[in-house]
Amino acid sequence: MIGSVRARAHIAALVDPLSRLEDELDRIDRWAALLVRSWDNGGRLLVCGNGGSAAEAQHLTAELTGRFRSERRPLSALPLHADTSSLTAIANDFGLEESFARQVRAHGREGDVLIALSVSGNSPNILAAVDAATDAGLGTYCLSGPTPNALEGRCDDLLAVTASTTATVQEVHLVALHLLCDSVDALLERSP
Fold first, then answer.
1. What CATH number should be reported for the domain whose range is 2-190?
2. pLDDT tens figures, 125-145
3. pLDDT tens, 10-31?
4. Where exactly are the structural domains of the chain?
């Protein structure tokens, strides 16, 4: 069957990028600690991405406002693409590049955190959001595909996934986001 050949190739393409994710566990734990510190100080998480990355952004915020594994307090996490009225009005009035940046300026406060997802690492609206977040004093943490890309060096920290397809990068991003949620849960379980 042709489908099974493609499926095997797809699975095989995940093996190396997933195994390299193990080298990123300390980074993911640092991000979790930064997030918990922000929430403990009344901060919030803003998350943005385009297409499949937007779906992953919303998946992350659902895990944090709801729960991942552990029962814990709800955590403030907003997916910037989910307010379609604001998103489309901003894109219409100010251009698509401003679709997330304007929302970062509206909702972001010093001490908050932005997590941006971009497979290419070059999406103009993601770059503008990171710049707006930096200007407003937010921490900026990004997940991208292979480097070099425009996000590299533009955010506080970048977790880059080297893989040959968009699907593989996004699948590894989802695992990284689940690891981040698990680390957040573990930190909150230990805190009083």
1. 3.40.50.10490
2. 999 999 999 999 999 999 999
3. 999 999 999 999 999 999 999 9
4. 2-190
